[in-house]
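Quick one, tokens below:
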């Protein structure tokens, strides 16, 4: 009888990290690890970190400090807890993490986690020799980690992530991704379709294709030629049983003809598009090395809305980038007014060590950043609320994903990625139903089920 070991995973940041955490869990299941909701009695803890947001390292070290007592309690009983730091902070900080926090046993980057079973064995070998495991792996291996991963087995059967591209060659001056995730790499189309068909076979109806720079996808196609993201989407649409397709995150520089055609001709492709712009000022966009202007960004949105009038837009914004003036900020506000977003992520600029923007001397005062962020977020909230309220009285399809807080309540996602609350039997989890929207708030919708249908959104 195999020994059951408890695994606790905390995931920081982006959807790519969520995908990576799921795959690490898949890797460890054959070793006897079962996922735990709490870290107290875990045999292994993995902190899967993100380096994009402000004070990422501080949050990590704070969490490690909170976990130390659990590790000490296990040691007092003669047991051992492996504490591992994974992800982009691990890639960036490397052995500095082990130096500052000796309680950490393993440090490995996002390109190395496919070697987890081997790293755990190494940790136990060093533990038996000197009483202290020590594993560091932050190299960029020549082999693809995807070749060593087992078939995914998500617990949430209705929807799943599927990583198709990693890394970035854009080198925006504020971003650490090229340094922590490496250069752009695209998986072969055949591998992606195989994984997609497996997911559908276990009940997945919606797949979100992931990439740090997903529209830069350039993988080897079924004809041994290079395929674009647009062509990949058409191939995904032919997977039997797949009813919804999404993809994120995109870069304006990589929009191409086949992508526009995909949004026009693929009913499976949801009418929700996340396209980060970061700023509405051409001066700031140039300083960020975004490689597009505000006018070029507007033109992309115009083309998308021309071929898909119902498409809903989401974006990312950074306020307070070095040298940002009041006029630069006003240009951003005007772009938001012009486009009207249904959802967006907005942040104050924070210096990331090792990035070119961190070397600029004319940093914006923190109070000014705070004020600008509040103004921008208020405008974005108004637009999101307006869009949600506009849904009231309409019918839409909803993919039911989880139970709500109240008895008999389920929560699902609309085609526009809104959370929808409704009363429905638990047996419908993972199914697509038609819902009449009765109410809309800032962050969600409420409705009643009309009928259960496996239909494509139109």
């Amino acid at each position: 009888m195999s020994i059951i070991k408890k695994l606790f995973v905390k995931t920081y940041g982006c959807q790519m990290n969520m995908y990576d955490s799921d795959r690490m869990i898949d890797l460890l299941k054959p070793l006897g690890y079962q996922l735990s909701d709490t870290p107290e009695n875990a045999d292994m803890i993995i902190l899967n970190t993100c380096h994009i947001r402000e004070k990422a390292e501080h949050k990590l070290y704070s969490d490690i400090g909170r976990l130390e007592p659990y590790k000490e309690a296990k040691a007092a009983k003669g047991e051992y807890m492996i504490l591992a730091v994974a992800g982009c902070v691990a890639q960036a900080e490397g052995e500095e993490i082990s130096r500052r926090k000796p309680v950490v046993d393993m440090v490995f980057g996002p390109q190395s986690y496919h070697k987890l079973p081997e790293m755990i064995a190494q940790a136990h070998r060093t533990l038996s020799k000197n009483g202290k495991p020590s594993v560091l792996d932050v190299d960029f291996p020549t082999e693809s980690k995807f070749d060593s991963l087992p078939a995914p087995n998500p617990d949430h059967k209705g929807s799943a992530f599927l990583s198709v591209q990693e890394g970035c060659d854009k080198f925006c001056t504020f971003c650490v991704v090229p340094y922590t995730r490496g250069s752009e790499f695209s998986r072969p189309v055949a591998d992606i379709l195989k994984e997609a068909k497996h997911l559908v076979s276990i009940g997945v109806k919606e797949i979100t294709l992931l990439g740090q720079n997903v529209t830069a996808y350039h993988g080897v196609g079924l004809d041994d030629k290079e395929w674009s993201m647009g062509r990949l989407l058409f191939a995904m649409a032919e997977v039997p049983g797949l009813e919804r397709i999404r993809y994120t995150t995109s870069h304006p520089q990589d929009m191409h003809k086949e992508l526009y055609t995909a949004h026009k001709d693929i009913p499976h492709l949801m009418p929700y598009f996340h396209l980060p712009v970061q700023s509405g000022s051409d001066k700031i966009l140039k300083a960020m090395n975004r490689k597009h202007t505000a006018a070029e960004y507007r033109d992309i949105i115009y083309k998308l809305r021309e071929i898909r009038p119902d498409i809903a837009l989401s974006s990312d914004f950074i306020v307070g980038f070095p040298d940002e003036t009041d006029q630069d900020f006003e240009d951003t506000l005007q772009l938001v007014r012009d486009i009207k977003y249904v959802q967006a992520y907005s942040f104050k600029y924070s210096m990331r060590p090792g990035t070119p923007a961190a070397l600029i001397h004319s940093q914006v005062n923190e109070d000014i950043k705070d004020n600008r962020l509040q103004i921008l977020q208020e405008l974005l909230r108004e637009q999101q609320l307006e869009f949600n309220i506009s849904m009231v009285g309409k019918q839409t399809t909803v993919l039911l994903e989880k139970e709500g807080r109240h008895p008999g309540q389920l929560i699902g996602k609309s085609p526009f990625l809104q959370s929808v609350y409704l009363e429905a039997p638990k047996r419908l989890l993972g199914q697509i139903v038609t819902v009449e929207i009765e109410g809309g708030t800032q962050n969600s919708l409420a409705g009643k089920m009309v009928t259960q249908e496996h239909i494509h959104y139109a």
